[in-house]
């Protein structure tokens, strides 16, 4: 299986295929969610075997990293600083007003060094589960999938494999 890992090509293709990706999203919405989940999990496992996230780390560069209060508590204890000080100096509030979410106020992630997470054992659940391809109800998360298509080679390749599976033509 040939997969694409060049982030420049992925970003360019994301722009070129934007309309196609939204059309495919509509197409997938009309398909059996269990069938889609099964296909996606299979493609995810295949693609994951071929991609080393530590060679990419684009999610840590491009995305806003989100912590909940418990994760901040563990991290601030590890960093030996008060959690309120960490929140005040290193985070910004959720733009939708969710008081339980805190976003790092820096991009790329300040805990990224040489494409490796320096707090890997303490990373937030959001980072641990990214790119969320393996989770149930893929069809209900298609807007996020399209957003991450330009950022993550795993998402990009799984979405392209799905298009091929369905012989999708916009």
Name the strands of the widest sheet in spatial order: 1-3-2
Number of helices: 9
**Total domain modules:** 2
Main structural class:
mainly alpha
Rough outline: elongated
Range of helix content = 40-55%
Give a structural overview.
With 170 residues, this protein is mainly alpha-helical. The protein has 2 domains: 7-59 and 131-165, no CATH class; 64-129, no CATH class. It contains 9 helices and 5 strands, in the order ααααβααββββααα. It has helices at 7-16, 18-29, 33-50, 58-62, 69-79, 83-90, 125-129, 142-149, 153-165, and strands at 66-68, 91-93, 101-104, 112-113, 116-117. Strands 1-3-2 form a 3-stranded antiparallel beta sheet. Strands 4-5 form a two-stranded antiparallel sheet. A hairpin with a 2-residue loop joins strand 4 (112-113) and strand 5 (116-117). Helix 8 packs across helix 9. The longest helix is centred in the N-terminal third of the chain and has 18 residues, at 33-50. It is elongated and about 55 Å long. The two termini are 23 Å apart. The model has no long low-confidence stretch (mean pLDDT 94).
Short description:
The chain has 9 helices and 5 strands. With 170 residues, the protein is mostly helical.
């Amino acid at each position: 299986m040939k997969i694409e890992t060049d982030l420049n090509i992925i970003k360019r293709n994301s722009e070129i295929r934007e309309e196609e990706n939204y059309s495919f999203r509509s197409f997938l919405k009309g398909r059996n969610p269990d069938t889609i989940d099964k296909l996606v999990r299979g493609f995810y496992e295949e693609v994951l075997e071929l991609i080393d996230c530590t060679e990419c780390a684009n999610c840590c560069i491009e995305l806003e990293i989100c912590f909940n209060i418990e994760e901040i508590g563990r991290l601030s204890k590890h960093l030996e600083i008060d959690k309120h000080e960490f929140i005040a100096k290193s985070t910004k509030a959720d733009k939708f007003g969710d008081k339980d979410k805190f976003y790092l106020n820096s991009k790329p992630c300040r805990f990224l060094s040489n494409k490796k997470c320096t707090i890997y054992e303490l990373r937030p659940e959001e980072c641990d589960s990214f790119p969320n391809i393996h989770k149930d109800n893929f069809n209900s998360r298609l807007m996020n999938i399209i957003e991450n298509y330009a950022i993550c080679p795993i998402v990009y390749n799984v979405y392209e494999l799905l298009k091929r599976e369905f012989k999708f033509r916009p």
